[in-house]
Amino acid sequence: MVKGSQIFTLSVTLLFFICGKTYGTDTDIFCLKSIKDSIKDPHKYLQSWNFSSKTEGFICKFIGVECWHPDENRVLNLKLSDMSLRGPLPHGIGNCTSLTGLDLSGNNLSGSIPENIATLVPFITSLDLSSNQFSGAIPLSLANCTYINTIKLDQNHLSGQIPQQLALLPRLRNFTVSNNSLVGPVPNFTNGHVVVNYSNNKGLCGPSLKPCPNN
Questions:
Q1: What is the pTM of this model?
Q2: Could you tell me the mean pLDDT of each successive run of 10 residues in the chain, 215 residues long?
Q3: Residues 6+ apart with CB under 8 A from 79
Q4: Are 62 and 49 in contact (CB under 8 A)?
Q5: Residue 89 CB: number of other CB atoms within 10 A?
Q6: How far are the Cα atoms of 15, 37, 91, 158, 214 from residue 33, in angstroms, in the given order?
Q7: Which of 4, 122, 163, 189 is the most exposed place for a label (fewest CB within 10 A)?
Q8: Beta-bridge mates of residue 110
């Protein structure tokens, strides 16, 4: 039996073909180069990212890199968790034009989550930035990532309000923001299928939390 998640993955793959997004290659190589150059890697996990090879699919052997096909330089997922990486979230990630999964959890990345996050990763289905040092607000443009089903922002220093527009994301199933400094009303997820975790954000209010003030 084909599961819903498999159908969705096939749908996204078909979308890339229809939109002419099957090329990747040069832009994806540049994407990984820019990531390696823009963050500090004290334990040299990314030292194995050697770009001297010109063979098709060589980046698919890099640590933390999953490709759509092992013989094609087109990045499907980046899994760079627990590597003690430092610096801001690399804007060059936008050159991985077919990226659907980004896991940067358990590092020491800092700064704000880019306001144009939806432009950088328009086809993202899973975003895990938990257990870092990110600060500032959750960007409103995250609500434009219409394919996303998992957002994990736990254990950071995020502040301000959670964008209410996140409640409109049609495929969202997991939304966790525990252990931050967020305030205000939580999104009104009405479809009943979203698992949330708001714990240890004393300023949040709304369903399953303290009542929000009338004003």
A1: 0.87
A2: 48 46 71 96 94 88 93 93 97 94 98 96 97 98 96 98 95 97 93 90 91 80
A3: 64, 65, 66, 101, 103
A4: yes
A5: 22
A6: 26, 6, 12, 28, 50
A7: 4
A8: 133
